[in-house]
Design brief:
This protein is an alpha+beta fold. It has one domain: RelE-like (YaeB-like fold), CATH 3.30.2310.20. Helices cover 36% and strands 30% of the residues. It is built from three helices and five strands. The chain has helices at residues 8-22, 26-41, 93-96, and strands spanning 3-6, 51-52, 63-68, 71-78, 81-89. It has a five-stranded mixed β-sheet with strand order 1-5-4-3-2. The protein is globular, with a radius of gyration of 13 Å. The termini are far apart.
């Protein structure tokens, strides 16, 4: 089983998602963040399920993307770790990397 590691920027992204949604609906904010966390947990067993994105944008290394509508989880698999780099809204992800 792989270990999940969130970089600080990814943790900040999750906080921002929660606070943005909770302004209108705290229950929906909980549901969304939990949905993202549940999806990321699947990477412990299936770390390669995400689409490789390095051929779409110029990044060094094998970055992958997992979709949890409307958010994208950007990550890399290194040895036995899955490193979560960003969690971004699908409309802003290319410019934010």
């Amino acid at each position: 089983m792989y270990e999940i590691e969130y970089l600080q920027k990814a943790s900040d992204d999750l906080d921002e998602i929660y606070f943005y949604i909770s302004n209108d609906n705290p229950l929906a904010a909980d549901k969304m963040v939990n949905s993202i966390l549940d999806a990321v947990d699947k990477l412990k067993i299936f770390p390669l399920i995400g689409t490789i994105i390095t051929d779409k944008i110029s990044l060094r290394g094998d970055y992958r993307m997992m979709i949890t509508k409307p958010y994208l989880v950007i990550y890399r698999v290194i040895d036995t770790r899955v490193i979560i780099y960003r969690v971004l809204h699908e409309k802003r992800y290319l410019g934010a990397l």
